[in-house]
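Reopening this ticket.

The earlier resolution said the output was attached, but the attachment link was broken on my side. Pasting everything inline this time so it's all in one place.
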Amino acid sequence: MKRSSLIVILFFLIIGLSNNSYSQEWIKTFSSNTYQTFSYQLKEDYDKGVIIGGNLSLGSVMKIGWIIKTDINGNIIWEKKLGNGTRMWALDGIDKTPNGGFIIAGVCDTLDNDWWDPFITKLTSCGEVEWCHIFHTDSNPDYGVQINSLPDNTYVFLLKDWDVNPRNSVWLMHLDEYGEIIWKQRYFQNDTLASPLNETDLQVIADGKYLVTGTCYRPISGQSQPNWIWPMMILADSTGEAMWEISWGCTIPFTEQVGGEGFQSVETDHAIYSCISHYHWPVTSYSPTLIKTSLMGEPVSYKDLIPNTIYGKATTINTLFDTTFILGTGYTKSDNNPKLAILKTDTLGTILKEKVLKNTIYLPIDAILTQDNKYLITAADFTNNKYLFHLWKLNENLDFDSIYMAPRVYDSLCPYPIVSSTLSMPPCGLTVGKEELPADEELVKMKVFPNPASDWIHITLPDRIRLESQTKNFSVQTTFHKWTKELDLEVYDLFGKRVFSKEISRDDKQLDLDVSAWPQGMYVVRLVYDGKTVASEKIIIKEP
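Inline output:
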């Protein structure tokens, strides 16, 4: 009997060794003897390592951006700190770039101690600073929330409270490979009753569209002040033009209004699903909830995932399969025993499995699925009077993942070993917000002179292009600082006949036209971008 047992033990030992892995509880804790530590965003690296974007703080203010690279088992390989804490370089978002580097977004106080500015920083594949760019406005705290790298080496940047009349505003910017603005767009300007409060998630979905999730204020029926919170969602096309903007749950035919905070969203082939905290009233309680929105921006359904909660939020959502989600939640029932739990659900919100990770009041911050469908989730904690954070890794059955023993090569795109260090921030490029609207109007004007003219006309092209359009529910203005599509200058006579046409290059600032042979009369000079007129001026040609 003992011999048979030994054979069985050896058999399973050999099987385990051949797989180069073994199972145990998979949790990693990140803390510091000096700083409070916080995680913000997770990314899987090209070598199956994990990138953690977070912050270090000596007090209540995040001062030092913190980038951590771990191996596949969550062990730290290297870490980078943005600055030494003398000035603020706090990190809010991080993404991988197509060349294996990193793009970081956050907030800094380097230009003004009293007011914060958004910034972005590009790091090489070796974790060294390549360049940085600050987006400055005077006497206004504004924030860089999240940045996503695009396949063409450009970026889409989500900002809060930027530029003109900034309070409670949502912005997207499309940036070139060096952080210069291609276009910028502000949202929720047409709904005078809605006031954006907080944007928390930016996703690039099918056809290059941008999906923003967050929270806004809007009055409930019979009230005139925005004292009720609702999930906020924005869908914009690839040029930043809003396709729809909604305060989710305030005007839908459900049995109750579905107010609360919005956190993250995912797209399927047929709809958008989001995780929120559903605020119930008049008996106050909060529930972790899954909501469904049509691709046309129409609220479809909602499902409170955990019934009878006193407090609850669903803060992360990932698509495991087409009809299966994994949601990170925190909730408390009447037993006052708070839980941080992962829920696997179908698209109706039916719970297929639940995994409680910890009894704590702290919520999931971010979660990702790896290339091989492993699930990573991070959350804060508070122990011994200090903030720290945890990282858990599970498989698709919500069991803890294995520990992998086979040797792996990390950071192969860097020609030398990467070491932990404090990054000195170089002088950054600067974009200054326009605080006076008339000045901004001047930047989009085309100037034609002299007028009248007889021999030559001189055309000064605008520094920026403003494209105006009308959707079903609101008008949209998008300002392009650079243009990636065709830009043409056209001149028409009074009979609508085109008498001149020229494609404008990016370097053209002024054109000179010989009009000495043109018949006398009135002409219209038009600047056409992507088939739409963006500037127009009338001129008169007279005899010499």
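Reporter confirms the inline version is readable. Confidence is low (pLDDT under 50) at residues 1-19, 435-439. Helices lie at 2-18, 437-443.
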